[in-house]
Design goal:
Elements (H helix, E strand, L loop, with lengths): L8 E6 L5 H12 L3 E5 L12 H10 L4 E6 L2 H9 L4 E7 L5 H15 L6 E5 L6 H12 L3 E5 L16 H7 L2 E4 L14 H7 L4 H6 L5 E3 L12 H4 L6 H20 L3
Parallel strand pairs: 1-2, 1-3, 3-4, 5-6, 5-7, 7-8
Helix pairs in contact: 1-10, 2-3, 4-5, 4-10
The structure holds phosphoric acid mono(formamide)ester (CP).
Length: 263
């Protein structure tokens, strides 16, 4: 008889919306023979101003092994994670970090090209508000890629200025173009010119044919069809969006298994 080791409880604590990250972590928890518990923030004591740290301390006291956390407040997550021995996996924090997205994007590119070293990778769109792009840039540069970006100037923050290029340079030279969703919910005022975005910057069939023959398109999701990417591009074999989602399950299963081990 095969004995399956009990890997304990993991809680998912998502203070911002998610489809891909949350469900793939939940699949990963089941695949690792751990038990998934969902803390619904709307019906939890976070709603009664309990802090993230006190939430973590209480989860630990209940015997929960780890938590997968998404929050708009990156600093609060760092602070709370440093003060508990509950295992914390970052499922996206503020505009700064989305480490598992970076890992699954890297796996997707390695499947396609064999390695990241030497690739040119271009982000199109709202890099200023994108934790996907910041985590991706950190990882890809460490692995030896060139990372550039293009888009409207209000979508650029100081840390992206050196990477800014024209839209044609990006589509002409990159091995991978990563389209980003315009994060209207993080803009103080509604973003102007969303309707023009596709024609000026977005991934259209015309731009797909402008790209190098082996170049690919990625999108972290959720995507706004017809805003940052054209409908037809999504069904083109050079668009790897659903491969990214599949790799998200693999990467997160690896992480849950690794961090479920006792030592
Ligand atoms: N890419 C990503 O983080 O998607 P979700 O917001 O749906 O998790």
């Amino acid at each position: 008889m095969r004995v399956v080791q009990d890997m304990g409880y993991w809680a998912t604590v998502f203070l911002e919306p998610s489809t891909r990250t949350r469900l793939s972590f939940e699949i990963a928890i089941h695949a690792a023979h751990a038990k998934a518990l969902t803390l619904d923030p709307e019906h939890s004591s976070l709603k009664k101003n309990e802090s993230l740290l006190d939430t973590f301390l209480n989860l630990k006291a209940m015997g929960i092994h780890g938590a997968v956390v998404r929050t708009a407040d990156h600093e609060a997550l760092l602070h709370a994670a440093a003060k508990t021995d509950l295992r914390i996996l970052n499922a996206g924090s503020g505009t700064l970090e989305h480490p598992t997205q970076a890992l699954l994007d890297a796996v997707t590119l390695i499947q396609q090209f064999g390695e990241i070293h030497g690739l040119s990778i271009g982000y199109v769109g709202d890099v200023a508000h994108s934790r996907v792009a910041r985590s991706g840039r950190n990882l890809f540069q460490r692995l030896g890629a060139r990372v550039i970006a293009a888009g409207p100037k209000d979508f650029f923050s100081d840390d992206w200025m050196k990477a800014q290029r024209s839209i044609d340079e990006l589509y002409d030279t990159c091995d991978a173009v990563i389209a980003l969703r315009t994060q209207s919910e993080r803009h103080g005022v509604p973003t102007s010119g969303q309707n023009e975005f596709l024609s000026r910057y977005g991934v259209t069939t015309q731009r797909l044919s402008q790209m190098k023959p082996r170049a690919v398109v990625l999108h972290p999701g959720p995507c706004n069809r017809g805003v940052e990417i054209h409908e037809e591009v999504l069904s083109d074999p050079r668009c790897l969006m659903f491969k990214q989602v599949q790799n998200g399950v693999r990467v997160r299963t690896y992480l849950i298994e690794k961090f479920s081990q006792k030592n």
